[in-house]
Amino acid sequence: MPQFIKDYVSSCKQCSRKESIHHKKFVLLKPLPISNGPWIFLSLDLITQLPLSNSFESILVIVDRFSKMAVFIPNMSSITSLYLANLFIKNIFSKHGLPSSIVIDRGSLFVSSFWTNLCQQLKISRDLSTAYHPETDGQTERVNQILEQYLWIDPHFDSVHIAEDTPAGQFSTKFQSVQQDVKRELEASINRFKRYADKSRASAPVFNPADMVWLSSKNIKSTRPTKEPSERWLGPFLILKKVSTHSYHLKLPFQWKSIHPVFHISLLEPVKTSTIPNRHQEPPPQIIIEDEEWEVSQILDSKIKRGKLWYFVEWKGFSQE
């Protein structure tokens, strides 16, 4: 009887969706590789929604993972992939040559067909960060924090000064004449950090294609008005393939088509299969909402309601119904 109860509870789908996880974070730390010299392995990111300054409202951040040198390039949020490539050639390629690898996020600029084809033609490895896993490029995230802090605490700060201050904010670590010494120090530092980080982590379970897993709901928006008491885990979902050592491609419902289906293993939990025959399991009730942008075809009418101006519009691609 005790074993039956244990199996019944551990394999209950409804219980699993509400369950709090108490084990250590899955997967040990996996640091990014270290290059043999500067400007070989880079990372890119875009800081947006800054105050307008001389027609600029965003900053392109490029970090060399070897020397830790950071380049800050002011630009517009509406830049195209072609313009981004020209910025890269002007500010990086002309001074340091072509890199071997670039770590970037999944922004529309970086995943565009133009940028993809450009990296393929130049034989640059384009490593996309995993969705909802900022630790993939933690170094650039940290540089972004330093830059934003620099801009906001400047006693002479004014939105007009962002463009002028950005070049002054560029910095680099002086590296020695013998680059191998620098590499050895970086490796030692990373190993120390890894030992510290792994104390709060556990070895990840091995998932295979066709396995069923739970997906953490903490990054997924739902139709519920409040996050509590929503399910902590969604699914279960089928694993289609193993994308990397730490990421898996899940088979998501059609309604979730706007969500990228690749997730880091830290967001997954194994599903306990029930050995109890003919056991009824409730289907997942969750409906996912993603913030999508819709283009307005025309404004049909307007009215004042509770002191606010409301518009009745026709969305492009949809009927008035």
UniProtKB/TrEMBL annotation:
Molecular-function GO term, any one: RNA binding
PROSITE patterns registered for this protein in UniProt: CHROMO_2 (PS50013), INTEGRASE (PS50994)
Integrase catalytic domain mapped to chain residues: 34-217
Organism lineage string: Eukaryota, Fungi, Dikarya, Basidiomycota, Pucciniomycotina
Keywords annotated in UniProt: RNA-binding
CDD domains registered for this protein in UniProt: CD_CSD (cd00024)
Keyword match Oxidoreductase: no
Residues annotated as domain Chromo: 294-321
Protein name stated in the entry: Integrase catalytic domain-containing protein
Annotated GO CC locations: nucleus
GO biological process: chromatin remodeling; DNA integration
Gene3D superfamilies the record matches: 2.40.50.40, Ribonuclease H-like superfamily/Ribonuclease H
Pfam family, one: SH3_Tf2-1
